[in-house]
Amino acid sequence: MSIVDIQGLTFSFSRKEDPVIHDFSFSMEKGEIVGILGPSGSGKSTLLRLISGLEMPNKGTIHIAGTIVVSEGVFIQPENRGVGMVFQDYALFPHMTVKDNILFGLSHLPRKQRKSRVDEMLELVQMENFGERYPHELSGGQQQRIALARALAPKPNVLLMDEPFSNLDANLKESIREELGVILNKANMTCIMVTHDRNDVEAICGRSIVLGKMSVVK
After folding, report:
1. pLDDT tens track for 179-188
2. Is the pLDDT of residue 1 over 80?
3. Most exposed: 35, 97, 159, 217, by fewest CB within 10 Å?
């Protein structure tokens, strides 16, 4: 069974404008890491927003883990889709410690399980000794790892990453790419990553989709 299955997805920002995404279909299996490439304005980030439920398509269907999350007459709210997101700016809560940032998405778990899940996530991203620190006390690479831990903590069906390396310098980017690939594979996480850099895709992804004029699946 496909973890993500999209059929005939079309979206435009207004009726007068041409669709940013037109009749797009795509599916991916459990544990697959897929890169979305394309120039600015090609609909890369919009596609993630449609999958996560932050935008509503004009038409088309999206299934996540066998459940219809959007189609004609169906719209599942973002928090109920089993989707994790890592944003370009990491979106960590500055007034919360690292542990509390990770805890934020775990309110559905019993209290005892929450603590062990946080410890498990800190170990996964090799940040066990940073639980009591605040985001401003972390480097860019460390912040990115905590953002990843927070997104993975609720065990989402699919992880969406929007330009996850854009705020990192070239040297750090290379080492973090490797780390990220290892973490995602260890967690057997199904992941869609939007990027403008083909090197990101080559380092981490099993295959890529190019949006825009080329609009091909590789």
Report:
1. 888 889 988 9
2. no
3. 217
| pLDDT (tens digit per residue) in 44-66 | 999 999 999 999 999 999 999 99
Domains held by the chain: number: 1
Q: Residue 62 in 3-state DSSP? A: strand
CA atoms of 114 and 152, how far apart (whole Å):
13
Non-local (6+) Cβ contacts of 187 within 8 A are 124, 152
Q: How far apart are CA 116 and CA 122, in angstroms?
A: 10
What's the CA gap between 41 and 179, in Å, rounded? Answer: 29
Q: Which domain holds residue 136?
A: 93-154
109 located within any domain: yes
Torsion sign over Cα 108, 112, 118, 120: negative
Residue 31 has pLDDT above 80, yes or no: yes
What is the C-alpha to C-alpha distance for residues 14 and 86, in angstroms, rounded to an integer? 27
* 59-64 β-sheet, strand order: 21-28, 4-11, 59-64, 67-71, 74-75
CA atoms within 13 A on the CB side of 35: 22
Query: 134 in a domain, yes or no?
Result: yes
Does residue 149 lie within any of the structural domains? yes
The answer to whether residue 169 sits within a structural domain is no
Do 158 and 3 contact (CB within 8 A), yes or no? Answer: yes
DSSP state of 123: H
